[in-house]
Amino acid sequence: MSINEEVNKRKTFAIISHPDAGKTTLTEKLLLFGNLIRSAGTVKGKKSGKFATSDWMEIEKQRGISVTSSVMNFPYMGHQVNILDTPGHEDFSEDTYRTLTAVDSVVMIIDATKGIEAQTIKLFKVCRMRGIPIFTFINKLDREGRPPLELLEEIEEVLDIETYPMNWPVGMGKRFLGIFDRHGKQFVRFNGNEDETYIPYQDLDKPENQDLVQNSTFQETEDELALLDEAGDQYSLDAVLRGEQTPIFFGSALAPFGVQTFFDTFISMAPAPTARKSTEGLISPDNPEFSGFVFKIQANMNPAHRDRVAFLRVCSGKFERGMSVKLARTDKPIKLSQSQQFVASSRDTIEEAYAGDIIGIYDPNAYRIGDTLIEGKESFEYDELPQFPPELFKKVTAKNVMKAKQFKKGIEQLVQEGAIQLFRGSNDESYIIGAVGELQYEVFEYRMKNEYNVEVMLESIGERIPRWLKTEQVDRTMFDERNLLVKDREGEYLALFKNDFSLRWFKDKHPDIELVDLFEVN
Ligand code: GDP
Questions:
Q1: Is 254 in the pocket of ligand 1 (CB under 6 A)?
Q2: Which of 355, 442, 452, 512 is the most exposed place for a label (fewest CB within 10 A)?
Q3: pLDDT tens sequence across 365-384
């Protein structure tokens, strides 16, 4: 098979959602389609929303395939599906955002009873900024949720994206009858107990379907649908692929209902890997020379195995185990010899991979987040990964002042690695660490102690809203504890606002100062 054919088979995506919207449940159903697990319930969603590694190891042993909590891949309908896990709950961190730089599309799950929630907005923004196509699955139709039209309006307003319902539900909860599959021009009837019947539109008139079409809920929905046909947005695959329109699917991951129709349609519409921006222009995925970039580095927390794994998204050419590549940042050759694997826990060796695939490579302390690896003579680097806005800030000091040197070294290395973001107090040069989730601090503290032999003290500054200051002259008197002034790694000033109120107050008072949030910096 040619590189081009291999690339076009790949569908690499992540599922984003607020905790409890149903990511674990939906993922499990998709794995069932891929025959990765035999029956639902094999993979239990743990409290943290992660798959238990032991479950995976067991599955791997049983079936001899590579499934891990970071990347799940399986063949489906002639495609090669790669699902990347986006850690949520307590594991929410910058890695969750960075994962989104390694996918070609995203499935956004929304709980029909709740609508859009905080974490969904954050993750959505990143997808939007990068123009990633977003497919929406509105979940839990088996429960009494909010009216579908209201949910669509909320998506359009809060997320500022066009919607196109690929299907439309008839009733909800106890009155749930099924969905109009607008795309497939059929009615999918909900029979409960994992059973669904597909009725082509032209067969709805048949006598056996009269109980359905005479139902008042069904008739009301038909009117609603007519309205949508007339007044709703027009479907445009181009707009979807540009990330400007999101196709909406209603269903229930648990029932399950509408999952198969959703997945089949999604897989047929979702983009295969496309060209990526680099310092030398666009690099096509079927470029014969291998290239890729590191989007995540995982340090082993076990002191007995102090090794690290770099997660690489293949962007072009063919990866082969043992190949020699070049680290673009340093221009130094590196042999990708041993330990190519999907994740550290599985130790599964892979022999080859193509654009769209994710591989884990042994990191001899050489890589940084965002690094480009290339096979050819030409040198280029893929676009830098954005910095993602931290929300939590803590002042950090060494417990023992005599350890200042190791302290600095440790922080510098962990910052380079992308484990944390570092800011300096504008007055006292104090070290302030920004993170997206608490977990990052735990990892930071642990690694400082175990790898650099420094115990640190963390003092919370609390949740803050960071904004870069676009102005020639920074006047320190404008700032105090409420609007803390700090500098980033490049020496650029930013204010950490205590809350929305102080941000607005500042804007009113200093309309001439342009405030930029991290998303727009890169
Ligand atoms: P995650 O945190 O996004 O991974 O969410 P889970 O998949 O763990 O689901 C959270 C809870 O919602 C669990 O109790 C699920 O059983 C439940 N759930 C998921 N999908 C559905 C659904 O379609 N209908 C109903 N009624 N419950 C669901």
A1: yes
A2: 512
A3: 888 899 999 998 889 999 98
